[in-house]
Amino acid sequence: METLKIIFWLALFIIFYSYLGYGILLFGIIKVRRLLGWAKPFEGNEDYEPEVTLFVAAYNEKDYLHEKVANSKSLNYPQEKVTQLWVTDGSDDGTPELLKEYENLGVLHQPERNGKIAAMNRGMHYVKTPIVIFSDGNTSLGKDAIKEIVRLFRNPKVGCVSGEKRIYSKDADSAAGAGEGMYWRYESQLKKWDAELYSVVGAAGELFAIRTELWQEVEKDTLLDDFMISLRVAMKGKTIQYNPEAYAIESASANVKEELKRKVRISAGGIQSVIRLAPLLNFFKYGTLSFQYISHRVLRWTLTPLLLLLLIPLNFVLAQNEGLFSFGVFSVLFWGQVLFYAAALLGWFLENKQIRLKVLFIPYYFFIMNLSVFLGFARYLKGKQSVNWERAKRGGTTTEAVA
Q1: Beta carbons within 10 angstroms of residue 323's beta carbon
Q2: What CA dihedral angle connects 242, 358, 309 and 24, to 10 degrees?
Q3: What pLDDT, on a 0 to 100 scale, did the predictor assign at position 359?
Q4: Which of 25, 84, 159, 327 is most buried, judging by how many CB atoms fall within 10 Å of its CB?
Q5: Residues 6 or more apart whose Cβ sits within 8 Å of residue 30
Q6: Three-point CA angle 219, 110, 206, nearest 5°
Q7: Which residues lie across from 250 on neighbouring strands?
Q8: Four-point Cα dihedral 31, 37, 41, 45, nearest 10
Q9: Residue 200's closest CA among 243, 148, 163, 240?
Q10: Can you list the alpha helix ranges (DSSP code H) found in 287-388?
Q11: What is the DSSP letter of 391?
Q12: Is 240 within 8 Å of 159 (Cβ atoms)?
């Protein structure tokens, strides 16, 4: 029984550390660094204003392209220094034809659909500017997005800059929207602290940029192109920085079914990335970057979901030995788990009945997140995850955006 207790507490610690403990530790380290004066921001040359390429890999974006092009042309950056490049491979809804109606817009198209990363690999041969900014076709960028991204590239140590993904929110949001919005608020804060400590561990595909000279082609079957591209830049000794003032806005998934579909793909890609980025687990070579990578990403995609599953029967055995209704430590923790998952189940039931209680969205979304890891792992093992990107259905937009 003592061995079971050790396993239980170790599992509980790892789960806590993965989701909350790392954030607490990171906050503490950052506070100490600030007190010691080690957190001075890099200023650099204020006149730094290079030419950039706004790169959009698009598949059947007819419904969004007019808004996207207009948004891109309205950004607060000298337009003569911005090259728009769209790669529309496989699109058959008229997207490439409509784009060619615009002046000063580069359009690359071939009828074969080989996936987003194949389109990116092909399109990068045509990028001639020192900075390339990747963005999705269905997202709107904040007015100062390019300006804020470029500002961080003043520091020669920076190889990649990640913008912030923001989710449209509304009062009567679905569990997908509210859960995703809360998750991204927390993730945004972690990214700020990660960047201040050393480097962000992965960029948001909705908006990120790299120095063009650091680009290297990514395997054609890659599922998380943004993650792989940015981490490989970091593995070259450069850092990934984060600027929440450079943001991209999109609607939340239309419902939890659509959100689950998206997260299963991300989870399958996460497992694939952990395997392909195995050298990054070497603390002796990558130091702080390895610590951040394992703490923020690897545990959530691998060990933690398994421990969550193990914790339930393990806790039951320990609580039963102690007395299920004894109000001892293990019995309280066991019934706490039961209550948490019951809340997630109730959230699912009410969501299907169009009855929405935000207090249930956190356990519901947390459950969906971890369920997606198991489904994504199974899909990865079966090799059934297509590289062809298929956007999840999105809910309607509103006036308020949350990080």
Answers
A1: 11
A2: 40
A3: 66
A4: 159
A5: 39, 193, 196, 197
A6: 55
A7: 167
A8: 180
A9: 240
A10: 288-293, 299-301, 303-322, 329-352, 361-382
A11: P
A12: yes
Q: How far apart are CA 111 and CA 402, in angstroms?
A: 37
Q: Which two tokens stand for residue 299?
A: 């545990």
108 contacts 123 by C-beta, under 8 angstroms: yes
Residue 23, number of CB atoms within 10 A of its CB: 19
Report the C-alpha gap between 127 and 352 in whole angstroms: 47
Residue length, the chain?
Answer: 403
The pair of three-digit structure tokens given for residue 298, joined into one six-digit string: 């690897």
Give me the pLDDT at residue 241, please: 96
Take residue 205 and report the two structure tokens written for it.
């595909």
Query: Token pair for residue 179?
Result: 């859960």
Question: How many Å apart are CA 229 and CA 203, to the nearest integer?
Answer: 8
Residue 286 tokens, joined: 């990558």
CA atoms lying within 13 Å on the CB side of residue 399: 0
Estimate to the nearest angstrom the gap between the alpha carbon of 112 and the chain centroid: 28
Per-block mean pLDDT, blocks of 10 residues, the chain (403 long): 93 96 96 87 84 94 89 94 94 90 90 90 96 92 95 96 78 52 79 95 92 94 92 96 90 63 86 95 96 96 94 95 90 95 83 65 82 87 66 45 37
Judged by DSSP in three states, 146 sits in: helix
Asked whether 83 and 53 are in contact (CB, 8 A), the reply is: yes
The two three-digit tokens of residue 48, written as one number: 């730094």
Instruction: Tell me how far apart the alpha carbons of residues 165 and 262 are, in angstroms, rounded to a whole number.
Output: 15
Q: Which residue has tokens 């997207």?
A: 95
**Cβ neighbours around 354 below 10 Å, total:** 8
How is residue 145 written in tokens? 């997005």
- Tokens 């003592």, residue located: 2
- Name, in order, each residue with C-beta under 8 angstroms of 88's C-beta and a sequence gap of 6 or more: 58, 59, 61, 95, 96, 99, 107, 108, 109
